[in-house]
């Protein structure tokens, strides 16, 4: 892990109310590729209904696209379909 990320993690633990600004600059292709290595590939699908296997088939292009959307601040996390389905049943 990058030294800057370790420092951020330490600060987050020590100062619970601290508000971090502009963490996008720390997220790049190398960082996301490193994160990919730690993902359980046999876990359940994500909220986007894409399996790790499907995402990994075109991994480099997917990560480049994600980094680009993050830098343009156009990335929006999707709401969980399971959470919505559960609320509708109640």
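^ Assign residues to that structure.
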């Amino acid at each position: 892990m990058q030294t800057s990320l370790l420092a951020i993690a330490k600060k987050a633990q020590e100062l619970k109310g601290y508000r971090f600004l502009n963490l996008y600059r720390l997220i790049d292709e190398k960082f996301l590729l490193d994160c990919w290595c730690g993902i359980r590939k046999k876990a359940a699908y994500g909220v986007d209904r894409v399996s790790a296997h499907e995402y990994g088939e075109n991994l480099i292009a997917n990560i480049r696209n994600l980094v680009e959307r993050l830098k343009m601040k156009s990335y929006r996390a999707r709401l969980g379909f399971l959470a919505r389905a559960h609320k509708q049943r109640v």
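The chain has five helices and no strands.
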